[in-house]
Write the structure tokens for this entry.
Amino acid sequence: MRCVIARFPFDLTRSGVLESMEGIKPEQATGQSVIIGRHTYPAKQVGQVITRQDRRDFSAGEVLRAMAQLGFTCRDQAPVLAPTRVLTPLQQASAMLGGS
């Protein structure tokens, strides 16, 4: 598939992207991300690997569009974790003693 990233045309295939990302350790995905194989990669990391360009030269949206057209699962935001409940010292002591 032909796509344009950072004003340059690229001929990308699903198998080519899988091959390029093989052995690449995923960075912490805090925003837009792409699921490739069993790993979740930040969109900018994927773009840098497949285009060999600096991350500042393209947007994450360009990469997400291309990856979605190739059939990869794309996410706009990292999963939001539920806030953990902070116990007061009294609640903590009660929990340690087996109270509810």
